[in-house]
């Protein structure tokens, strides 16, 4: 608790009581007079905390596991009309980055700092956290969240959907609740605390307690809650701004959606993932999303050419993508319901909206063949053959996407959804793992509507951008706790100037061994365990893994000229590579990245900690 110094002065027979303390978080110095009698006293009440004049509402929308080339808004062939409209009336950022996997991205987003710096090197799950400053999965109180900042500056704060940064051990109705959304500044929360959940039977939490889902799709429920929070707040305080963090489970597995949505794409992916990549690549050039001279990377060698698959494989794999596409379009529809509500109450023009289309690249976790009942088979494929696994999926083709399934698509579709980049989710070394589309919509603050921005950005930039636009300074303390510095860079400078040079000039990436360092357009990167795709890939790659970090092969790219990493310059510029590796080491020490922890270590911890794990799913 914060200490106060109480001074008492005798003034004309009266006592003046003065509480001397910092005027932060709504706490104000007492300015009245306390006498022996009411006649000798002067009453005083603190002024209510108000947001800056004309401060807008703020909405952050964060999707899950989408991929750069999936949505039509950024050249994809999957229809996302709501995102299209927001981008056409706002800005598209094509050089924006996440951390490469869900919890690190969310921790960085919420705090405006690097993910190891806020202790989220991996996850907050027992098996994937470790007892080191960068890895314990517990965001410190001196690294406050956007919700804590805005709440204390006159905003109401709501969150719906996936939270993902509450430690498993604390995710029960007994708490403690310090690291639940309510303990991190959100006045209302409706969603789940873990990394993934069933879309029809979610592990559902409302405020500080688990509740029973009603059987509807989770996205419909969370959108209804978001609309309800806004409606009640605006009815009670029409001029008070709100902050909404809208983070659906979509499109993380399980891919579950009503057939009316998936059937919209019947037959549209029969040409396969190779044709898909070519179509999207051409659309991205046409829309100006990527440079005109860009080259499409070769298909990953682990993935078979579509024309070499047999008819049953093609039928099965195409259905996986139909379901995924329907899932993404349905998610766009639910966001559209939220946007239409803002229109109906005349709040849309006064709302700053950020849409981050994915917290990392498209997911490689669906194996080479996809999973129909992933929880029962996807993690337990040892002991069955590739043929048996394929038959298991083929026999369940009608279940794909239904409440009876736990679906994720095959690896070939992950690469297609990540067009025009190499690799995918978890690969922090590659743009395919870390580059995600960003939309910024703010009618009052953006004049150059529908244009593209290429400035380098990172997920830790969204909080500083929000503060600058709303006119709020980063606080020195939150509820009496002195705050550490922010690490992100506001993107507001780029709103009115497409040619402004990037201000976010340096950024590290690290996810379970794979790592990179970016500085002024140059990037050094290494894919730790380069032959490793997934534990369910039915190959012997795990036998050939070399866990020696010193043996990792580093690559070097000039992203100013080669945005999607097609030309490795490591041999041509060894001095530059050495320089950047040195920068990475310095950054690693500052941000608590050491000790290195990779997926082998995570698997060992999963086995060791399994009996003690409290499920958050």
UniProtKB/TrEMBL annotation:
Residue ranges that the Swiss-Prot or TrEMBL entry lists as coiled coil: none
The keyword Hydrolase appears for this protein: yes
Gene3D superfamilies: 3.30.1120.10, Alkaline Phosphatase, subunit A
EC number: 3.1.6.-
Matching SUPFAM superfamilies: Alkaline phosphatase-like
Signal peptide (residue range): 1-22
Protein name from the UniProt record: Arylsulfatase
Keywords on record: Calcium, Hydrolase, Metal-binding, Signal
Metal-binding among keywords: yes
Source organism (scientific name): Danxiaibacter flavus
InterPro entries assigned to the protein according to its UniProt record, in alphabetical order: Alkaline_phosphatase_core_sf, Sulfatase, Sulfatase_CS, Sulfatase_N
Leading EC class: hydrolase
GO-annotated molecular function: hydrolase activity
